[in-house]
Amino acid sequence: MASVLAWDSTTPTASSGQKDKHVTPAALRGLYAITDETLIPESAFVATVEQALRGGAAIIQYRDKSGNEAKRLEQASALRSLCGEYNACLIINDDIRLAKAVDANGVHLGEEDVSIEQARLMLGEDAIIGVSCYNQLQSAIEAQAAGADYVAFGAVFTSPTKPSARPANCELIREAKSLLDIPLCAIGGIDKSNVEPVIDAGADMTALISGLFSEADIALTAKYISGLFD
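Above: the chain's sequence. Below: its structure in token form.
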């Protein structure tokens, strides 16, 4: 479940000089970079994520399972400012209260998180709400009907981040693309060596974790994958 944090209206947010927070679902296309506290050193967190943005990442999802609320607030706030500078979208994994506190563009929900309706009530009509549908097409159809702005399928390939993730495949992406009107995100084991067939199957976004942040040149990898969406 999304964590309940004791933040109020005095919680610091990103700088007021950033660009408009609202990113339409039509902008949900391209490289979707997901942070991982085990891959990105805390001391180089902002600089590392900026490499992905410099390479053209369209969406950054802040995902941190450490339970360190002070660190999470600080890092998410820094990403909010950084994404504003690069005109990119910031999505917060699971945590609606953190998304609201830092004025993120939206939130990504898993099957054990709050409902789409609850998230919409808390974050407002302009928030982007994404939903993990794993390998369940019916879940994606229901998520679209409930007001999701995008859905995610995976693991498309074996994932080092989540080795026990339920398998999906490119055929599922292709079928979902023919049935859904909202953008599709593919996730799970995707890297520069296998991303092209995923995009060809109809993925509007490809989510990378280790396939991006384990690379020696993050910016170059991001540039290559982002260019495949042009």
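The beta strands are 30-34, 59-62, 89-93, 106-109, 128-134, 150-153, 184-187, 205-208.
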